[in-house]
Amino acid sequence: MPPTSLTDLGAAPFDLAAERGKTVFLRAWAGWCGPCREELAALEALARRFEGRDDVSLWLVSVDPDPSPVIDLLARGALAVEPLLGGAGLLDAGFLARVPAAWILSP
Fold first, then answer.
1. Cα separation of 104 and 107, whole Å?
2. Which residues, other chains included, contact 98 with Cβ-Cβ below 8 Å and sequence gap of 6+?
3. pTM for the full model?
4. In sequence order, what are the beta bridge partners of 58?
């Protein structure tokens, strides 16, 4: 993954190295993407399946330049996966061509 400035909702930087030793699921997502919105229920089911496990982490990487779609999902209780902001940098770097997209990083 290219260097990016992914942050959590509190603007704390996301450190992929801190996830070392875990299976990490990253899902690129956008509020304007119909298939992305349709798969939220499946992401919730996946989050429930791995709930309580410290060897797996799931993250929703928003490519929206504005965080409001993610904030709206959280306010409605429709997001069970930890959100990260700043994913637009992945598009800008050419690492990501379209959404939805996913990466699974194994330990």
1. 10
2. none
3. 0.84
4. 25
In the block, residue with structure tokens 């299976």: 23
What is the residue whose two structure tokens read 């959280």? 74
Amino acid 54 reads D
Say how many C-beta atoms besides its own lie within 10 A of residue 69's C-beta: 19
Q: What's the sign of the alpha-carbon dihedral 97, 58, 33, 87?
A: negative
- Encoded tokens for 97: 């061509």
List pLDDT tens digits, range 13-65. Answer: 998 888 999 999 999 999 889 999 899 889 889 999 999 999 999 999 999 98
What's the one-letter identity of residue 33?
C
Q: Identify the bridge partners of residue 100 per DSSP, sorted by sequence position.
A: none
Distance CA 31, CA 17 (A): 27
Q: Which residue has the tokens 């119909």?
A: 34
Q: What is the C-alpha separation between 13 and 65, in angstroms, rounded?
A: 16
Helix (H) or strand (E) holding 40: helix 40-49
